[in-house]
Amino acid sequence: MKFTYVTLFENLISPYFEDSILKKAIEKNLLSIDFYNPRDYTKNKHNKVDDYQAGGGAGLLLNAQPLFDTLKDIKSKNPNAYFIFPAPAGKPFVQVDAKRLAKKEHIVFVNGRYEGIDERVVETYADEIFSIGDYVLTGGELASTVMSDAISRNISGVLGNEDSLEEESFENKLLEAPSFTKPTIFENKSIPSEFLKGNHGKISNLKNEMAKLKTKYFRPDLFSRSDARR
Hints:
Elements: E1 2-6, H1 20-27, E2 32-36, E3 50-52, E4 60-62, H2 64-77, E5 82-92, H3 95-101, E6 106-110, H4 119-125, E7 128-131, H5 141-152, E8 185-186, E9 189-190, H6 200-218, H7 220-223
Parallel strand pairs: 1-2, 1-6, 5-6, 5-7
Antiparallel strand pairs: 3-4, 8-9
Helix pairs in contact: 2-4, 3-5
């Protein structure tokens, strides 16, 4: 998988790949990342990439020309590049999207700044538009990094133990069951006794019931859509 980030601020993203699981994935050639800065493509003599909004309005927009030329260049190098625009107007990014997108060979995240991006760029190049929540960020870089992480861990070989993917939150539309480790008793709180008896069938059933209860308590909206309520 290759991730390309179109951004004015590479350093907001690149450090995230310098440690832990994603660093190891890059070292194993399971992931690669690169960056394109629209400022390198601007034809403005002052090297500007933004301007005031047509028709008025607060804030500046990223100009169409630098972004058009940036994305055109990326597309010419890889016709299969898949363009994702993080934006509040996008559909919610969820786990099924992360799993589906993990099968792509090249994803390009186009990151807006200020008041966003000239809509003509979005209309021309966006394959999908995603939001990571109902709030506004100062740019798309954080959202792109969040989506990259979620997608990456669904790529074969990125996680040390891929069995963990099967028990994660949002599988079967449930949150993951509570987890415990040693010691058995800590601060007068004990691990559920069934976890200590070695009967994996009963442990699995208990985890499933705990997942249902956790989802019903913390995410009743999710529980209402799950098979568990039927």
